[in-house]
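Lab notebook, bench 4. The sequencing result for the construct came back, and we need a structural model before the next group meeting so we can plan mutations. Quick request posted to the team channel:

Model the 3D structure of this chain.
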Amino acid sequence: MRASPADFLDVSAHFAPEDIAVRDSVARLVDEKVLPIIRECFEQHRFPGELVPHMASLGLFGAPLEGYGCAGLGSIGYGLISQELERGDSALRSFSSVQTSLCMFPLHRYGSEEQKQRWLPAMARGEVIGCFGLTESQGGSDPANIRTHARRQGADWVLSGSKMWITNGSLAHLAVVWAQTDDGIRGFLVERGMKGFEAREIGNKFSLRASVTSSLFFDDVRIPAANVLPGIVGLKGPLSCLTQARYGICWGVIGAAQACLAELLEYTASRELFGRRLAENQAIQIRLADMSRRISGAQLMALQLAQLKDRGAMTPAQVSMVKWNNCRMALDVARDCRDMLGGAGISAEHGPIRHMLNLESVVTYEGTETIHQLAVGRELTGYNAF
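Done. Here's the predicted structure in token form:
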């Protein structure tokens, strides 16, 4: 029996039946609902909001969380959701990742019971969309460099500042915003419609075009005390959210690479040059084999990370290593597939250029490749080179 191009080393043999069922249900959603429209969405710079109810019906939002209408999946199941969504497009995985890891996770981990009851069930149903406000224009890779600030005023807080490159920002009903206070960095739940809060969509992107990216502005927004996350003070709060989101990326980008390889296998089997199929050429086979090797290595790293996560032993530095490795793998595979398509590779008729452009963002956001390399270096040496 020939090896599966999507799983050459049969990594899925380690998956529980319920994980495979989750993967297959999301794969059907991607094949039936996402792939028929995603090229047009990418070209038109449009987020396919009509897919949100379908995603919610499968329990994808808050999938690894327990209670409050969430599915309570293990780490492999959640990783496979990310993989299949990104096989469709990075925009869909980004949307789900922000909703789950960057918004629902901090509510679940650090929120009051009242906050959890108010927001989490509605977010799991896809009725409330969230965004995560950490990055600022001057901050970039230095998340501690936060200028957005909140000051107490009576029983309330007053929030001022801005955030940039915020996925889901203009769609969101709720923004989890991190700001400096006299006590340290704290999380605030900013609701759409609060006076002084504005979200503006960022246009002219050549990456993640099917995703909504926004700037957020806070002009003395009054935040009631009930909208402050009580369970965390300090940078650990937002960084713990990023660790969860980066974990999903480690799996997600594998899906993008699998999609590119699958298309190239089909293309090289049917395309004829100089009297024979491209797939019969040694140079083509070597490049395809190298892609499969890279994907297989990424799958094994993601599986090990999932096992560490389920044991409560996963460290941020380990996530950094796998995010760095797997994003680089996926971007290199997409670029090589684009090249192997020849002139046709620059057309959105084929998926690799769309995945390639998306992955230029994925390799950058939630920690650039260099930042993750330095995180691993710090873990190895004990010295901080940031």
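The radius of gyration is 21 Å.
Will bring this to the meeting.
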